[in-house]
């Protein structure tokens, strides 16, 4: 397999254990189930190429334990007990932090698209990311092929991970979950704040309970269907000062949503404390902007109208210009709206399709497949 690479004595690597164990590019090839023997092959390749004393730290998702065969599960627990392996609800953020802090390699076939904004060093140091290949003579580690990712593709990956691992627990690979996304939902629970603000239909996505039913993300009670949801786009709000995202919410064809500061019936309160909004959100008017999604000859298109805000709305389309109060603006994929010099609003790269629409190609291992839920750039 070649000579051991000459590297500094403090070089090491953090291994994405779940990614390795699920890899169909490791023997047994093409078999889609997790096996710890694949981890053994990658560890052996590391020591052959970097030396027997080059340290490895293993990081795994908690979910891997439940997916492994019983004997592998017992081995995984022994690795945890020895301190060689760490488990976390989501392994990616932890393994990237560990690799960054120590200056180590990352061994994973993942492209980490959803974490590019939090970890810009990924694109600055692509040589620190190693994948693997099986060439008939054994497994060998090689650069994983990290490439720059356009902002809209990062946004798409963030959206997928947020739906699955955030408060919604929506896995778009599950048929029943996709059906939930294709419907509007209504909360009828007395005293629920979301039911009060949005009595006809909830603005945001529902959550999926343990029994697979749609639940209110506020009160936790089951929801009632409120009709089919048309094609949808996701709106992203971020701090204009540092770019930190603090809110994502969907908007569907035939719907209009007000953005502002304060409780709004059929609107979004950008100043809600649970969102951790920027301090300057106080410059946003109570009723600042109206967003809508409408069907056009070219497909669903988002429109924005400034509602006569005190501090105005700026549109960025190559350069900044002021949006006239009451003027209707069609939003492009790269357009940005600046509300009161405080909050940036834009379209996410994600588009959620109705059941009858054609699905787009699947995402890679960083985001998983979106079958009925398609995406476009």
UniProtKB/TrEMBL annotation:
<dbReference type="Pfam" id="PF00498">
    <property type="entry name" value="FHA"/>
</dbReference>
<feature type="domain" description="FHA">
    <location>
        <begin position="257"/>
        <end position="316"/>
    </location>
</feature>
<dbReference type="InterPro" id="IPR000253">
    <property type="entry name" value="FHA_dom"/>
</dbReference>
<dbReference type="InterPro" id="IPR008984">
    <property type="entry name" value="SMAD_FHA_dom_sf"/>
</dbReference>
<protein>
    <recommendedName>
        <fullName>FHA domain-containing protein</fullName>
    </recommendedName>
</protein>
<keyword id="KW-0597">Phosphoprotein</keyword>
């Amino acid at each position: 397999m070649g000579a051991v690479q000459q590297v500094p004595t403090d070089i090491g690597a953090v291994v994405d254990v779940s990614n390795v164990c699920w890899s169909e590019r490791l023997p047994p090839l093409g078999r889609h189930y997790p096996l710890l023997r694949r981890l053994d092959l990658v560890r052996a390749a590391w020591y052959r190429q970097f030396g027997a004393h080059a340290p490895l730290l293993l990081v795994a998702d908690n979910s891997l334990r439940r997916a492994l065969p019983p004997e592998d599960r017992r081995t995984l627990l022994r690795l945890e007990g020895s301190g060689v392996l760490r488990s976390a609800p989501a392994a990616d953020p932890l393994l990237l932090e560990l690799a960054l802090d120590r200056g180590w390699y990352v061994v994973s076939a993942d492209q980490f698209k959803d974490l590019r904004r939090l970890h810009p060093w990924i694109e600055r140091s692509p040589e620190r990311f190693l994948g693997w290949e099986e060439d008939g003579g054994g497994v060998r580690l090689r650069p994983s092929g990290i490439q720059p990712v356009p902002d809209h593709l990062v946004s798409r990956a963030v959206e997928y991970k947020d739906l699955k691992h955030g408060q919604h627990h929506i896995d778009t690979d599950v048929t029943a979950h996709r059906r939930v996304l294709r419907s509007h939902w209504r909360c009828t629970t007395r005293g629920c704040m979301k039911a009060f603000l949005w009595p006809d239909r909830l603005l945001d996505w529902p959550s999926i309970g343990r029994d697979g039913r749609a639940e209110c993300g506020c009160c936790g009670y089951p929801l009632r269907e409120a009709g089919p949801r048309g094609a949808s786009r996701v709106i992203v709000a971020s701090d204009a000062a540092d770019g930190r995202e603090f809110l994502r919410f969907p908007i569907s064809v035939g719907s209009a949503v007000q953005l502002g500061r304060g409780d709004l019936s059929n609107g979004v309160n950008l100043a809600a404390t649970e969102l951790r909004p920027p301090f300057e959100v106080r410059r946003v008017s109570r009723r600042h902007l109206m967003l809508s999604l409408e069907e056009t000859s070219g497909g669903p298109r988002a429109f924005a109208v400034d509602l006569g805000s005190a501090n105005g709305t700026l549109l960025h389309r190559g350069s900044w210009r002021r949006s006239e109060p009451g003027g209707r603006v069609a939003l492009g994929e790269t357009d940005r709206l600046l509300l009161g010099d405080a909050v940036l609003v834009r379209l996410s790269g994600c588009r959620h399709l109705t059941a009858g629409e054609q699905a787009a190609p699947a995402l890679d291992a960083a985001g998983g497949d979106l079958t009925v839920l398609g995406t476009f750039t």
